[in-house]
Structure formats: C-alpha cells, structure tokens
Automatic annotation (TrEMBL):
SUPFAM superfamilies in UniProt: DinB/YfiT-like putative metalloenzymes
Protein name: Mini-circle protein
InterPro entries: DinB/YfiT-like, MST-like
Pfam families hit by this protein: MST (PF04978)
Domain of life according to the entry: Bacteria
C-alpha cells in the first residue's frame, strides 16, 4: 500500500527491494517538484530571487530535459524528440532555462509531465532488460557506461538538489514552506 503524505507525495516503501526503493525515492522527489510549482501563474514561475537567474519555470523545463536526456538518449540511445531535438544547443547551452520564460504554466507542466511519464516507461523497459545493472547505451568520454541503478541515483540527487532551490524560490514568492 502506498502511503501519501499531506502534500500528496508518495512515501518511498519502507521495506521494498532495491528497485522499488530507488524508484520510490525518485517518485517522492518528482512529487516534491510538482508540489513546489503547483498553482503558480506565469509571473510566479518566471520570478528570480537574490542574485540567481533560476526560476521555477526554468527548473520545470530543465528537469524535463534531464529526464528525457538520461532515460531516452543516454539509457536507450533514442532521439529525445521535441522540443529538444530542434534546439541549437551550441548557440545556447542553457536553452531550457532561458526559453521557459516564453512558455505558459500549462506548457511547462505538460512538458515536464510528458518527460516524467516517458522516463517511467523507459525505466520499466530497462528493468525488464537487465534490471538495475542494465548499462546505458551511451558511453561517457572515458568509455564507461552508467547502469540504470546509477541513473536512478543520479536523478534522485538531481531532484533533491533542485528541490532545495525550489523551496527557496517558493518561500520568497508566497511564503509556502515545508520539507
């Protein structure tokens, strides 16, 4: 039975196997980002705080990019699809952060949700094709290829890091706090 916390996040299983535990923590982090960006209009999603240029809208689009990059391109060697394949990344290596200001809240949430859903499907596919030890299609410059286990841990770390940013931005916006 999945336990849902007061913010609507699924608690990771307390007694799950390795895959269920890793996926459980990733889903908790995903749900935290959804909570921190919920109910905000375009102006709020485009607000910066202090000296940072980071916005919650940019963060949603960045995490959509990261989800698709790791699970589609790296893990399976598949095209990332739109909007990613049409971007001139040489002209703007941070395109996802910069372009988010032109997107509506609905577009930002939709691109993120599509990327998350795609990553879930690809995670299940990889679990059925080698499990957590399944190596990524795409190798790093030194020739090593990360496992699905590594990718899941990295995604947990990526979300946890950026959810800290989201906490600060959201509190500055409207005082919304919470773990």
């Amino acid at each position: 039975m999945t336990v849902i916390d007061p913010q609507g996040r699924p608690e990771p299983p307390a007694d799950g196997d390795e895959a269920a535990t890793l996926i459980g923590f990733l889903e908790f982090q995903r749900a935290t980002l959804a909570w921190k960006t919920a109910g905000l209009d375009a102006a709020a999603l485009d607000t910066t705080v202090a000296a940072s240029t980071m916005t919650l809208g940019g963060l949603l689009k960045h995490m959509a990019y990261v989800e698709t990059s790791w699970f589609s391109r790296s893990l399976f060697g598949r095209p990332m699809g739109e909007p990613w394949d049409a971007v001139d990344w040489d002209a703007d290596r941070d395109w996802e952060w910069h372009s988010a200001t032109a997107d509506t809240p609905e577009e930002l949430h939709a691109v993120w949700r599509r990327s998350v859903e795609g990553a879930r499907v690809l995670t299940e596919e990889a679990l059925g094709d080698g499990g957590l030890g399944r190596l990524a299609h795409r190798a790093w410059p030194d020739g090593r290829r990360p496992s699905l286990r590594w990718i899941l841990c990295h995604m947990i770390e990526e979300y946890a890091r950026h959810n800290g940013h989201a906490d600060l931005i959201r509190e500055a916006l409207d005082g919304e706090t919470g773990e």
